[in-house]
Amino acid sequence: MGIDAGLDAVPTLSKGAESDELPKSPSPRSDLFEVQQIPGRGRGLIALRDIAKGTRIISETPLLIVKSMPQPALEKTLAAKLKVMSKEQQRQFLSLHNNHPGQYAFGGIVKTNALPCGSGSSTGGIYPTICLINHSCLPNSHNNWNDDHKTETIHAIKPIQAGEEITIDYSHGDPSHIRQQHLRQSFGFDCQCTVCSLPQRELKASDTRRLQTQRLDDKIGDPTRMLSQPGASLADCRSLLRLLEEEYGEAPASSAARLYYDAFQISVAHSDRPRASMFAERAYRARIVCEGEDSPLTQRMKRFMDNPASHNNFGVYSTKWKGSDKYSPSSLNTTEFEAWLWRRAN
């Protein structure tokens, strides 16, 4: 199975993503996994040994990178790129799953497998190994584009046992009926992961939680509410964290990183340095897990952790939460610290 980049629907262009440079070597070998045929799922990656949370499982250079464009033009572009590839690279590309067979054979492979080169990018990369990773609605790994190194990385977001399949999420965290429709149309399979196979009552509860997370995420992203009701916006961040922990066992590192960054932005907009620094630290640690220390976004959060006031929006809404820049909550116990951090009454 592959990963749908959704290239036709993405509006922006990632910096440097149009490079035509080809990789110098075939797909990487690893002592962490091997490619195996998995009954009913095609090829996939199986862990050869226990993999700790936060481990970088693979970092891979794309076979090719393409922009979103009309199908006829895309087919011509891909044909030209394939001509200059080595025989091994051509074989790797042509062996990938194509859920859109027909007139545009090359484009069907791209549509089925391309991963966007960064959030919101209209360019996608095709990878000989990463594109073999199968889907789960409760994945054990996370994929991310590292723009500094021009590679796609896969990190374990929970402990993975030897013999376990390495999985990522092809969906967008929607309720099950929306996920199933997307996966069927884009990839040609009905998901039977542990979430989708839950008894009806439990699946309905899962769907309710996923709808609630989407609604809370929309509320948190409302800048007017962040201005007029920052305390409520911060409370929504905490509620979202609890929902994610209930649905996934623990908040997925990528979701936690975004959530803590939202809390950071609420704090800096109202001049709260101590809390902003703490939220930036949590976002930084979450990004290490799902992207690695060398990720540009990880390094960005580290800078904000050290100096929250360097953010462009520091104090842009108010100074109502300024307080003392020298205040340290280090003397608080865990319960007291969490109450302080989220501005809750003890």
UniProtKB/TrEMBL annotation:
**What is the superkingdom listed in this entry's lineage?**
Eukaryota
Q: What is this protein called?
A: SET domain-containing protein
